[in-house]
Automatic annotation (TrEMBL):
This is Nitrite reductase/ring-hydroxylating ferredoxin subunit. GO terms for molecular function: 2 iron, 2 sulfur cluster binding; metal ion binding; monooxygenase activity; oxidoreductase activity, acting on paired donors, with incorporation or reduction of molecular oxygen. It comes from Kribbella pratensis. PROSITE patterns: RIESKE. It holds the Pfam family Rieske. Keywords: 2Fe-2S, Iron, Iron-sulfur, Metal-binding. Residues 5-104 form the Rieske domain. InterPro entries: Rieske_2Fe-2S (IPR017941), Rieske_2Fe-2S_sf (IPR036922). The keyword Kinase does not apply.
Length: 106
């Protein structure tokens, strides 16, 4: 069973937008994206192995996000690598939204 954790209040996330979020106690950067009305969450840092590059600054096209540093592409719904140089998928996390409040499964 996934442990759900409430996130600090965020401004509403519009469709087609990716926002970063930092979980300080876990030292973990995640990204939240809304696509076709549904929220997704995944690691915010690209897995290409170079300098840390935030995917929340990348290009979101449909369900694909592209790393701005090296061009790796990922499916935000599953974290799967679609094009390298990254070879490791992103971790993805369950997101629940209730009355505008968000909780993430870790």
């Amino acid at each position: 069973m996934t442990d759900l954790r409430a996130l600090e209040p965020l401004a509403p996330i519009a469709d087609g937008v990716v926002v970063p979020y930092y979980l300080g106690d876990r030292k973990l950067r995640i990204a939240l994206a809304r696509i076709d009305g549904r929220l997704y969450s995944f690691d915010d840092l690209c897995t290409c192995g170079g300098d840390p590059c935030p995917l929340s600054s990348g290009l979101l096209t449909g369900r694909t996000i592209m790393c701005q540093c090296h061009g790796s592409r990922f499916d935000v719904t599953s974290g799967a690598v679609l094009n390298g140089p990254a070879s490791r998928p992103l971790s993805s996390y369950e997101v629940q939204e209730l009355d505008g409040n968000l909780a993430i499964g870790l």
